C-alpha cells in the first residue's frame, strides 16, 4: 500500500503524465499496428490489382473457353509459353499457373505440375468466389517449391478468370512476380504511418497535458489555500479551547474572589459601623437618659456621645461605599479616568502622584475602562499602604488600540511569595485583567515596586 500512498501524494499533473503517457504509448502502438496493417494490405492489394489487370489483358485472349475445356490444348499452351517466356512479362513473372476449381493445375510454366491436383486453399477458394487475392510473402504452398527456394518475399496473386456474359469465375490465374521496389514502398508506408500516428498521439497528449496542467495548478492552489484555512481554523480552534479553559478558570477564581470581597465588606461593616451603631444603641437604653432625675448637663453629654458614634458610623459607611461605587466612566477617555483616580487618591492620602499620559488611540471597551480605573486605584492604594507613597508615578499609553498602564513607587517593596492566594489586591487585579485577555506583571525589590497591565489591539476589540 506504500506505492498507493506515494501515488496519491503526487499532483494531478504528475499522475496524468505517468498514467496518460503509458496509456498513450499503448494506444499509439495498437493504432499504429492497425493502421500499418491496413496500409500494407491496401498497398499490396493495389499493386497486385494493377499487375493482375496487366497480366489478364495479355493472357486472357490466349485462353480457350474455360467453361467447356478441361485442359488447355497444345496451341494455347504453346502461345502461353511464348508470351510468358519473353518480353517484359517474362522478366516480371517468376511462375505462372492456371487452376481449375477442383485444384487441378491446367497450365504452368513448370511442366511437371501440369495435370496435378492439390488441396484447394483459402486463397484459391476466394479467387473462385470472384475476389482478387494478393499476398506479399515467402511462398509456403505445397506446389510452390521453386518459389520458396528463392528465399525472399514475392508478390503472389490469384486472379479469377470470369465468363464474359455471366461474370462467373471459370478458372483462376496464379502467378508470382518479383515486385521490385514493393519492399521499399511497404517500408516507407510503415514509417510514414507510424510517424503520423506518433505525431497525432503526441499532439493529442500535449493538448490534454496543457489542460490537465492548468486544472492541476488550479486544484493545487485551491488545495494549498484550503490547507492553510484548515490550519488557521485548527489554530483558532485550539486557541478557542485554551480561551475557554482560561475563562473557566478565571470564572472560578472570580467567583471565589467575589465571595472573599463579600466577606471583606461584611467584616468592614461589622468591625466599623456596626460597632458604633451598637454602642449608640446601648447608650440609648442607659439610666442617664431614662431616669427623669438625671441632670440636663449629664443627659446632653450622653446624647453627644451617641451622636458622635452615629456620625462615625455614617462616615465609615460612606468610605466603604466610595470604594465600591464607580463614577460614570463609560464615556470618559483614558486621560480623564486616570486623572480622576489620581485626584481622588491625592485628596484622600494627601500625597503627590506624578502622571504621564499619552492617549491618541481609539477608546477601549467599557470593561477595559473599568479595569483601568480599578487597576490604578488598587495599585496606588498598595503604593501608599506598603510603599509609603514615595515617588508615586502613573504612566498610561493608548496608541492604535494598544493600552499599557504602569503604576510605580520607590518604597521598600515586598516579597511576592508572601502574597496569599486569597488576597484581594494583586490577585484580584490579575484575575480581572486575565479575564479580559490582558497581561499583568509585578516587579518589586528594594528600589520600589512597578505594576503593569497591557491590552493588545485585538484583545481590546473583543
Automatic annotation (TrEMBL):
Cleaved signal peptide residues: none
Alphabetically ordered keywords of this record: Coiled coil, Kinase, Membrane, Transferase, Transmembrane, Transmembrane helix, Two-component regulatory system
InterPro entries: HATPase_C_sf, HATPase_dom, Sensor_HK_TwoCompSys, Sig_transdc_His_kin_sub3_dim/P
SUPFAM superfamilies tied to this protein: ATPase domain of HSP90 chaperone/DNA topoisomerase II/histidine kinase (SSF55874)
Keyword 4Fe-4S found: no
Domain annotation Histidine kinase/HSP90-like ATPase: ranges: 367-459
One Pfam family here: HATPase_c
Gene Ontology terms describing biological process: phosphorelay signal transduction system
Transmembrane segments: 12-35, 194-213
CDD domains per record: HATPase_UhpB-NarQ-NarX-like
SMART domains: HATPase_c
GO molecular-function terms, A-Z: protein kinase activity
Coiled coil: 216-260
PANTHER family: NITRATE/NITRITE SENSOR PROTEIN NARX-RELATED (PTHR24421)
Protein name: Signal transduction histidine kinase
Lineage: Bacteria, Pseudomonadati, Pseudomonadota, Alphaproteobacteria, Hyphomicrobiales
Amino acid at each position: 500500500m506504500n506505492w498507493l500512498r506515494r501515488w496519491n501524494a503526487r499532483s494531478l499533473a504528475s499522475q496524468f503524465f505517468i498514467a496518460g503517457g503509458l496509456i498513450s504509448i499503448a494506444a499509439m502502438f495498437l493504432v499504429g499496428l492497425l493502421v500499418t496493417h491496413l496500409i500494407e494490405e491496401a498497398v499490396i492489394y493495389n499493386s497486385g490489382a494493377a499487375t493482375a489487370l496487366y497480366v489478364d489483358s495479355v493472357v486472357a485472349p490466349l485462353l480457350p473457353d474455360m467453361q467447356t475445356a478441361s485442359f488447355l490444348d497444345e496451341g494455347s499452351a504453346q502461345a502461353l509459353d511464348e508470351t510468358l517466356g519473353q518480353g517484359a512479362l517474362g522478366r516480371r513473372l517468376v511462375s505462372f499457373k492456371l487452376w481449375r476449381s477442383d485444384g487441378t493445375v491446367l497450365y504452368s510454366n513448370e511442366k511437371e505440375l501440369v495435370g496435378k491436383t492439390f488441396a484447394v486453399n483459402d486463397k484459391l477458394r476466394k479467387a473462385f468466389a470472384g475476389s482478387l487475392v494478393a499476398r506479399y510473402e515467402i511462398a509456403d504452398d505445397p506446389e510452390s517449391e521453386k518459389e520458396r527456394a528463392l528465399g525472399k518475399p514475392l508478390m503472389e496473386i490469384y486472379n479469377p478468370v470470369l465468363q464474359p456474359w455471366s461474370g462467373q469465375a471459370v478458372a483462376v490465374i496464379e502467378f508470382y512476380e518479383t515486385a521490385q521496389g514493393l519492399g521499399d514502398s511497404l517500408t516507407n508506408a510503415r514509417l510514414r504511418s507510424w510517424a503520423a500516428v506518433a505525431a497525432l498521439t503526441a499532439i493529442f497528449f500535449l493538448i490534454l497535458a496543457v489542460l490537465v496542467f492548468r486544472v492541476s495548478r488550479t486544484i493545487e492552489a485551491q488545495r494549498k489555500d484550503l490547507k492553510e484555512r484548515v490550519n488557521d481554523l485548527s489554530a483558532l480552534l485550539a486557541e478557542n479551547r485554551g480561551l475557554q479553559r482560561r475563562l473557566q478558570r478565571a470564572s472560578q477564581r472570580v467567583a471565589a474572589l467575589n465571595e472573599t470581597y463579600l466577606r471583606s465588606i461584611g467584616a468592614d461593616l461589622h468591625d466599623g459601623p456596626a460597632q458604633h451603631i451598637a454602642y449608640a444603641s446601648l447608650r440609648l437604653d442607659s439610666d442617664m437618659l431614662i431616669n427623669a432625675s438625671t441632670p440636663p448637663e449629664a443627659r446632653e453629654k450622653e446624647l453627644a456621645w451617641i451622636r458622635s458614634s452615629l456620625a462615625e458610623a455614617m462616615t465609615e459607611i460612606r468610605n466603604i461605599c466610595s470604594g465600591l461605587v464607580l463614577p460614570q466612566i463609560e464615556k470618559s477617555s483614558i486621560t480623564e479616568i486616570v486623572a480622576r483616580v489620581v485626584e481622588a487618591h491625592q485628596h484622600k492620602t494627601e500625597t503627590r502622584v506624578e502622571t504621564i499620559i499619552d492617549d491618541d488611540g481609539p477608546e477601549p471597551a467599557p470593561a477595559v475602562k473599568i479595569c483601568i480605573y480599578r487597576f490604578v486605584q488598587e495599585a496606588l492604594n498598595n503604593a501608599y499602604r506598603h510603599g509609603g507613597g514615595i515617588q508615586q508615578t502613573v504612566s498610561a499609553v493608548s496608541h492604535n488600540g494598544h493600552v499599557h498602564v504602569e503604576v510605580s513607587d520607590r518604597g521598600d517593596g515586598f516579597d511576592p511569595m508572601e502574597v496569599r492566594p486569597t488576597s484581594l489586591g494583586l490577585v484580584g487585579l490579575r484575575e480581572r485583567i486575565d479575564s479580559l485577555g490582558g497581561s499583568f506583571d509585578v516587579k518589586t525589590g528594594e528600589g520600589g515596586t512597578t505594576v503593569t497591565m497591557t491590552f493588545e489591539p485585538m484583545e481590546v476589540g473583543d
